[in-house]
């Protein structure tokens, strides 16, 4: 009886423990690496979001690859550069032509102004040809006759003819004798003490003055009075 008890105890000591049944799907799920979560959402795999056609060797510098694609990308830039060059050449050509036209216009205006000046001056000088002819005739007659009275009469005629020509051009003589001195019209040559005339009165005209309309051709040179010294 004791031997049976010992035998039964021995058999119990060598019994194998119960094998636990583990779900294979659960083991695979646990063994797979878990994705990190951000804001409660799983982060997408980087390899899934990579743009198509991007190789691992791309440095990300943005430089276009060589080949037909690079030539197609450079074609629009080359066409735009050629367009800009064409516009530049057109503007330069236009500027050259405008400058040439302006130079021609300036030269033409200079020629026209010179011709107008000659025509105007010629018309003015032709008015003096008659008085010059009269002067020649007076001198010839005075030399033949030797009469001083005829010479004086001829000079007066010449003076009238000269003033007639000057009046057509708008030239007049400045009236200065007995007038009050005006520095815009007169030029004082000397100041003489005078008790009969107020100070700065023109006593004598040394040289006549002339004006063309309102423009002073030459001021009258005069002698003016001043207060006598005490």
Instruction: Output the strand order for the largest sheet.
Output: 3-6-7
What does the overall shape look like?
elongated
In the CATH scheme, what's the topology name of the domain at 172-230? Answer: Nucleotide Exchange Factor Grpe, Chain A, domain 2
Taking the sheet with the most strands, its summary is: 3 strands, antiparallel
Average of pLDDT: 74
Helix tally?
6
What helical percentage do the residues reach? 40-55%
**End-to-end Cα distance:** 188 Å
**What is the CATH architecture assignment of the domain at 172-230?**
Roll
Structural class: alpha+beta
Order of helices and strands: HHEEHHHHEEEEEE
List low-confidence stretches. Answer: 1-24, 35-39, 43-64
Strand content: 15-25%
Q: How big is the Rg?
A: 61 Å
Top-tier CATH class of the domain at 172-230: Mainly Beta
Quantity of strands, as a count: 8
| CATH H level, superfamily name of the domain at 172-230 | Head domain of nucleotide exchange factor GrpE
Briefly characterize the structure.
This protein is 53% helix and 16% strand.
Description:
The chain is of the alpha+beta class and 230 residues long. It has a domain at 172-230: Nucleotide Exchange Factor Grpe, Chain A, domain 2 (Roll), CATH 2.30.22. It is 53% helix and 16% strand. The chain is built from six helices and eight strands; from the N terminus they run ααββααααββββββ. The strands form three sheets. Strands 3-6-7 form a three-stranded antiparallel sheet. A three-stranded mixed sheet has the order 4-8-5, with no helix packed on it. The protein has a two-stranded antiparallel ribbon with strand order 1-2. A hairpin with a 2-residue loop joins strand 6 (209-212) and strand 7. Helix 5 (129-145) packs antiparallel against helix 6 (148-168). It is elongated. 4% of the residues are buried. Mean pLDDT is 74; it is low at 1-24, 35-39 and 43-64.
